[in-house]
Automatic annotation (TrEMBL):
<feature type="binding site">
    <location>
        <position position="182"/>
    </location>
    <ligand>
        <name>substrate</name>
    </ligand>
</feature>
<dbReference type="GO" id="GO:0005829">
    <property type="term" value="C:cytosol"/>
</dbReference>
<dbReference type="InterPro" id="IPR013785">
    <property type="entry name" value="Aldolase_TIM"/>
</dbReference>
<comment type="function">
    <text>Involved in the gluconeogenesis. Catalyzes stereospecifically the conversion of dihydroxyacetone phosphate (DHAP) to D-glyceraldehyde-3-phosphate (G3P).</text>
</comment>
<protein>
    <recommendedName>
        <fullName>Triosephosphate isomerase</fullName>
        <ecNumber>5.3.1.1</ecNumber>
    </recommendedName>
</protein>
<keyword id="KW-0963">Cytoplasm</keyword>
<dbReference type="GO" id="GO:0006094">
    <property type="term" value="P:gluconeogenesis"/>
</dbReference>
<dbReference type="InterPro" id="IPR022896">
    <property type="entry name" value="TrioseP_Isoase_bac/euk"/>
</dbReference>
<comment type="pathway">
    <text>Carbohydrate degradation; glycolysis; D-glyceraldehyde 3-phosphate from glycerone phosphate: step 1/1.</text>
</comment>
<dbReference type="InterPro" id="IPR000652">
    <property type="entry name" value="Triosephosphate_isomerase"/>
</dbReference>
<feature type="active site" description="Electrophile">
    <location>
        <position position="104"/>
    </location>
</feature>
<feature type="active site" description="Proton acceptor">
    <location>
        <position position="176"/>
    </location>
</feature>
<keyword id="KW-0324">Glycolysis</keyword>
<feature type="binding site">
    <location>
        <position position="222"/>
    </location>
    <ligand>
        <name>substrate</name>
    </ligand>
</feature>
<dbReference type="GO" id="GO:0046166">
    <property type="term" value="P:glyceraldehyde-3-phosphate biosynthetic process"/>
</dbReference>
<feature type="binding site">
    <location>
        <begin position="243"/>
        <end position="244"/>
    </location>
    <ligand>
        <name>substrate</name>
    </ligand>
</feature>
<dbReference type="GO" id="GO:0004807">
    <property type="term" value="F:triose-phosphate isomerase activity"/>
</dbReference>
């Protein structure tokens, strides 16, 4: 990883931990997580609970503030306000969070989110000064049929379109091969590096080499405390978007192990 890019280990809790469980879990891991972050200042950890639990996690974090531990939402809607039952706006998210996950594969797969919709959400997030973590990745069928490069280029170019020059360096991209999520099977390090380098090259062609070198690109897909170091040791991989392992106390070990940069 480039020296100027701070690593991110983001924990996506998905649809787990209501307010009581979320508060208990954060209280359990926070002392050890805060120690890791304080002793490894080049790492930022972002916790992303469900919307209903954002406030209680915010309260726990505020009671023991630690620079480098941040709160993120799992989604937002691009409209400012209105009759959109069940949705939350970027302005609402900003009251509690500094970051937001956009275009996660489960949003694309289960809720039919398109690149164009993800792009609208991205622009809304940037308008309200949220750090967007934009997810891209191919399905198992696309992977096995050799379409990875094509799919990644399409998603990057369309999901990350229409950025102003001053916005282009303020993006985080998460490469998540869909066939590895929840399967216990991670992509090989070489596979991940190959795709992440392609992402940076595509982004460079869109917004220039300076912006491409400024953005952080994470790997996501069955990341664990045991395999994280192999990924984050690579210069082009700037951290991880963690799913199931972020729901366990081992998340602290995962963050600690991710610090092993070459």
């Amino acid at each position: 990883m480039a020296a100027t890019r701070t690593a991110i280990i983001a924990g996506n809790w998905k649809m787990n931990y209501g307010p009581r469980q979320a508060a208990d879990f954060v209280k359990q891991i926070l002392p050890a997580l805060a120690h890791v972050i304080r002793t490894h200042p080049h790492i930022v950890s972002i916790l992303c609970p469900p919307d209903i639990s954002l406030q209680v996690v915010r309260d726990v974090l505020d009671a023991q503030p630690t620079r480098g531990i941040e709160l993120g939402a799992q989604n937002l809607y691009f409209e400012e306000k209105g009759a959109y039952t069940g949705e939350i706006s970027a302005e609402m998210v900003k009251e509690l969070c500094s970051a937001v996950i956009l275009g996660h594969s489960e949003r694309r797969t289960y809720f039919a989110e398109t690149d164009e919709l993800v792009n609208k959400k991205l622009l809304a997030a940037l308008k309200h000064h949220l750090l967007p973590i934009v997810c891209v990745g191919e399905t198992l069928q696309q992977y096995e049929s050799g379409q990875t490069s094509q799919i990644i280029e399409q998603q990057v170019r369309h999901s990350l379109a229409n950025l102003q020059p001053e916005q282009a360096g303020q993006i985080v991209i998460a490469y998540e091969p869909l066939w590895a999520i929840g399967s216990g099977k991670a992509a090989t390090v070489d596979d991940a590096v190959k795709v992440i380098r392609q992402i940076r090259q595509i982004y460079s062609s869109q917004y220039g080499s300076s912006a491409a070198q400024a953005i952080r690109i994470l790997y996501g897909g069955s990341v664990t405390a045991d395999n994280i170091a192999a990924f984050t040791a690579q210069e082009d991989i700037d951290g991880a978007l963690v799913g199931g392992a972020s729901l366990k106390a081992e998340f602290v070990d995962l963050v600690r192990n991710s610090s092993q940069k070459k």
